[in-house]
Amino acid sequence: MLLFAMGFLLVILQPSTGQFPRACANTQSLLRKECCPPWDGDGSPCGELSRRGSCQNILLSQAPLGPQFPFSGVDDREDWPSVFYNRTCKCEGNFMGFNCGECKFGFSGLNCTERRLRTRRNIFQLTTSEKDKFLAYLNLAKNTPSQDYVIATGTYAQMNNGSNPMFRNINVYDLFVWMHYYASRDTLLGGSNVWRDIDFAHEAPGFLPWHRVFLLMWEREIQKITGDDNFTIPYWDWRDAEDCVVCTDEYMGGRHPTNPNLLSPASFFFSWQVICTRSEEYNSQQALCNATSEGPILRNPGNNDKSRTPRLPSSAEVEFCLSLTQYESGSMDKMANYSFRNTLEGFADPRTAISNISQSGLHNALHIYMNGSMSQVQGSANDPIFVLHHAFVDSIFERWLRRHRPMLEVYPAANAPIGHNRENYMVPFIPLYRNGEFFKPSRELGYDYEYLQETALDSFQEFLIPYLEQARQIWAWLVGAAVIGGIVTAVLTGLILACWKKRRGTSSEIQPLLTESEDYNNMCYQSNF
Question: Which residues form the signal peptide (predicted)?
Fold first, then answer.
């Protein structure tokens, strides 16, 4: 019965969002450098007959990049996706997808005209049935092949510039693990040489928008394979937590009774196999991760290096991070000071906002604390706690956006590390998304967080917070200005009263009943100031 149900689900799958569209993973598409599959609704490329979109040349950003990557033409991810395709579907209106067959995030309906707002909830606020359904959905994704996407198992050069395609199938959950790996992997330079200081999803301005898109795509994929259009990712609010409270068999898996590095046999995830965790092996072979199983999920929460991450993040640290007014600063990488992004990502001290790469704060602290699969960047999405964690990180990003209300221009347009400028396309997503397109409030993208849903009064108070903070910082100057203003006012008042009394002192008997206008003006407006 279970096999029949899974088979039925595979039949009804709709186009998804991810890496290489299956329809474009062939010699013809690679040699033509074109990925414009037909929309099933009318059979035309990009649904052009139905005015959903059209096949167009990709417009790449020409803005200068930062100095962190001193090469050109050595990495398939440079100017994404132009190494593989220079023509893709450009969708119109609220349509989206590699063939314009879907709706933009936040829209639904036959013509994508209906707005839709979903709410992400705290995992501990879910009912038992809702929580069990979430865990079952994760397992379904781990066991459901992606119908619409495949992964690359070789570089473009290894594919003989497209004449020898190297792709393979992958399940829905691991598709997202692979995408996270591919965005953060090292550059292969030939021989045994690699360049490690490169990451298209971390250590730079795109960190928060990239993971925002990643979660939206992951959420939508679960909605499709389950048929549950109301599904949203739950979050784990880890502020002030004393330990990993989600690390129980009831939730994300408890500790193995005899091996503290493994999950409990009673966990939903005990039998899961990880992929893309052996970066040094791939580098030595100058190869890409091919999604071969590499063993069980590893996790030993709390038994991490305490000198780097002594505890889980606190509420005070989150509040300090939210008070930072600059989204990005300086070199716009992990050395940036007073950067909201760098502080939230965890490369800057969450009490001072000064870069300190010997410590791991906020976002990074959770990864290090888990002490296992979560602690290695490229393979961290193997642990399903990843989605709970990043949903909460995204909610902090959302709080900052609502508090400071930045213009799009706040997001750097130029000189950011490779792939992170405002108009750069995010690696490795097809359809294409620019970093700046997701530097906006979540409600414009169709979702909200339960703990952030606010009344009009709450919204007004949140709006005032940055102004009150600025006032607090200059209160001494304000008090001084008030005192000086009071003294000046008192002096002026005294002089005016003295002038008035002097005029009143003239005897009424000798004052003329009428005066010439020019004498009257001289008397009334005479002043020594």
Answer: 1-18
Token representation of residue 247? 């690390």
User: Which pLDDT does position 462 carry in this prediction?
Assistant: 52
Give me the residues paired with residue 57 across strands.
Answer: 87
In the three-class reduction of DSSP (H, G, I as helix; E, B as strand; rest coil), residue 189 is classed as: strand
Q: How far apart are CA 180 and CA 165, in angstroms?
A: 22
What is the phi/psi pair of residue 369, to 5°?
-60, -35
**pLDDT above 50 (res 4):** no
> 133 Cβ partners below 8 Å, 6+ apart?
228
Using alpha carbons only, give the angle 468, 471, 475 rounded to the nearest 5 degrees: 140
Q: Is the peptide bond before 512 cis (omega within 30 degrees of 0)?
A: no
Q: How far is 475 from 473, CA to CA, in rounded Å?
A: 6
C-alpha 291/C-alpha 277 separation (Å) is 10
Strands 447-449 and 118-120: parallel
Distance CA(377)–CA(363), nearest Å, equals 12
Distance CA 175, CA 106 (A): 23
Residues β-bridged to residue 55: 89
- Partners of 348 in the beta sheet? 355
Lowest model confidence (mean pLDDT) among 223-232, 359-368, 501-510: 501-510
Q: Report DSSP letters for 269-309, one per residue.
A: TTT-B--S--HHHHHHHT---------B----TT-S-TTT-
Handedness of CA 196, 198, 201, 205 (dihedral sign): positive
pTM: 0.84
Q: Token digits for 454? A: 């606010």
Cα 340 to Cα 142, 343, 360, 399, 434, distances in angstroms:
34, 5, 15, 12, 20
Instruction: Identify the DSSP state of 122.
Output: B
**Cis-peptide into 441, omega within 30 deg:** no
Cα–Cα distance measured from residue 402 to residue 305, given in angstroms and rounded to the nearest whole number: 35
Give the residue with greater pLDDT, 508 vs 404.
Answer: 404
What lies within 8 Å, CB to CB, of 219 at 6+ separation is: 231, 232, 233, 447
Whether the CB-CB separation of 142 and 176 falls below 8 Å is answered with no
Question: Which one has a higher pLDDT value, 18 or 41?
Answer: 41
On whether the CB atoms of residues 233 and 131 are closer than 8 A, the answer is no
Please, are residues 425 and 201 in contact by the beta-carbon 8 Å criterion? no
Q: Give backbone dihedrals phi and psi of 53, rounded to 5 degrees, phi first.
A: 180, -175
Task: For each of the domains in the chain, give its residue range(s) and CATH number, in order of start.
Answer: 22-303+371-461 (1.10.1280.10)
- How many residues make up the chain in this entry? 529
Q: Average pLDDT in the 108-112 region? A: 95
